[in-house]
Structure formats: structure tokens, C-alpha cells
């Protein structure tokens, strides 16, 4: 099983960073289910712009923390790479 760190672009052009072990399911939750994060619920639809795959949850969470500390400009550069 893999874990993923991801960046979503919301309808208002803001970026959301998260972590999951089922990327497809989580994207569906962000876009339609009540289980989606509150931040994305009010900014639907969201589009997956970037993801990274890890073998452990700890590594995925650590990467999530690093990405969350990046500036918007740095996150956009990561998406473009």
C-alpha cells in the first residue's frame, strides 16, 4: 500500500495540501462527499495538480508538512516541475 501527498487547486485558485492512502477516493470526497475537508467543501470543484507517492504514512506526512510551509510561488513551481 502506498501513501500520497497531494496538492489540489480549488475553484477560487487557492491551493490545498493533503495526505491519503487512496488518492482517487480522497479526490471524490473533496469534490462531493460530506467527508471532504471543510476548506475544500466551500471551494469546489477542486482539481488534482500534483501528487507524490510514499511507502509509509510517516514519510507522506513529513512531505505534507514541508509542502505546507512553502510559499504559494514555491508550490506553483513544484506543480510545474
From TrEMBL:
Domain of life according to the entry: Bacteria
The entry sums up its family as follows: Belongs to the UPF0213 family.
SMART domains reported in the protein's UniProt record: GIYc
Per the database record, which ranges form the GIY-YIG domain?
Answer: 1-77
Could you identify this protein by its name? GIY-YIG domain-containing protein
Report the Pfam families cross-referenced here: GIY-YIG (PF01541)
State the InterPro entries in the record: GIY-YIG_endonuc, GIY-YIG_endonuc_sf, UPF0213_domain
